[in-house]
Amino acid sequence: xSLKNKKILLVIGGGIAAYKSLDLIRLLKKNSNDVKAILTKxxxxxxxxxxxxxxxxxxxxxxxxxxxxxxxxxxxxxxxxADIIIVLPTTANFLTKLSLGKAEDLxxxxxxxxxxxxxxxxxMNVRMWIHRATQTNVQILKDYGYLxxxxxxxxxxxxxxxxxxxxxxxxxxKYVENYFNKRDVFKNxxxxxxxxxxxxxxxxxxxxxxxxxxxGKQGYEIALALDKFGVKTKLITGPSNINYQKKLHxxxxxxxxxxxxxxxxxxxxxxxxxxxxVSDFKPLRKSKNKLKKDQIKSNSIIIEKxxxxxxxxxxxNKNRPKLVVGFSAETQNLNRNSILKMRKxxxxxxxxxxxxxxxxxxxxxxxxxxxxxxNGNIKLIKKNKKSLIAHKIVEIILDKFLIxxxxxx
Length: 409
Ligand code: PMT
Hints:
Elements: E1 7-12, H1 20-30, E2 34-39, H2 49-56, E3 60-61, H3 67-72, H4 75-81, E4 84-90, H5 92-99, H6 106-113, E5 117-122, H7 126-130, H8 132-144, E6 147-148, E7 152-155, E8 161-165, H9 169-189, E9 192-197, E10 202-205, E11 208-210, H10 217-228, E12 232-237, E13 249-252, H11 256-266, E14 271-274, E15 281-283, E16 303-305, H12 309-314, E17 323-330, H13 334-345, E18 349-354, E19 366-373, E20 378-385, H14 386-408
Parallel strand pairs: 1-2, 1-4, 2-3, 4-5, 5-6, 9-12, 9-14, 12-13, 14-17, 17-18
Antiparallel strand pairs: 7-8, 10-11, 15-16, 18-19, 19-20
The structure holds ligand PMT.
């Protein structure tokens, strides 16, 4: 596969490396990609609109208040048009604007309005790059999901040596090619996935229930990451305060029984990732009215076990997903107990979460996990934002899926 027939929007920033954007345009065009470019005010100091238009064979966009542009293609349509947006060179100043969420000119407005991935290609003096302010902005942007390539180490235009040199057009081309190859594999194969997330509520009476601290964040981030990789994803989630992105297919449920029914309805799927903290127990009976204090005696609420959804999927002879991934929440003997669960529920991979820690896991924005496969291989993913943990988990799961899929076909 190669990088072909994609719609690529370049934002050309104000740095000496801007001249290399012309080489990248040539490479992209040579491979039949449609390229449009926004030239920032400072980018225009380094390359001219005429050279950009000559190479892209498209109008070069400069100004947000350009009446001709808004008549032809408005700034929102321009951001929707692109399959990916590449900002090169990304200066320290531009990084700051993005991390603040500014929309002060055409480039920043299009980026803020975009629902596509944005690849930043930094280039700046080494001192500017390693400055804590810049690194803080980089971290913020990574958390927002921006992609980065470089900067590389080498001699810079200012004569100093170090990390800050922009990646070459060929390196950027390869990165973008790889980016699309991964996504196209799953899109073309029409892979379908379900993700379970959040807590369940098992009602005792109309106002009281058994539940847990799960916020649904980790599962939501996993569903988003799958969606980014082109996997058709349905998120089945218990009660949560998350403001779900509209593009995601979300089904909200309340109890473990409802989650199981929704999972059953969703089959067949290729992939099931079960992050939900399904309550292990539910009251045998739910009272129609609020229980009075004197109605409740010790031991008067009888509980029974909820059906195990992962086990249902893992041992499903007729409709077993090709890959069943369980999550495991433990406060002790994390790996050992997780491996036992993986075997009992017949899943292919289990993701172990240490929920004795308060800084990660339940209802935190952070997590740290170990991925354990059914050959006993353990891979640790260090503490990070749940969005980044999700991205790494999904990359590993999809790689494993492709290997398994080859064996199935
Ligand atoms: O939601 P967040 O606040 O972001 O927190 C994320 C998390 C900590 C909840 C998540 O990362 C996590 O650890 N999820 C697993 C929670 C859990 O209930 O683990 P468990 O060890 O009790 O269950 C093991 C597996 O069996 C899980 O995949 C669970 O979904 C599944 N299960 C459990 C009980 C049941 N009746 N049916 C199930 O399918």
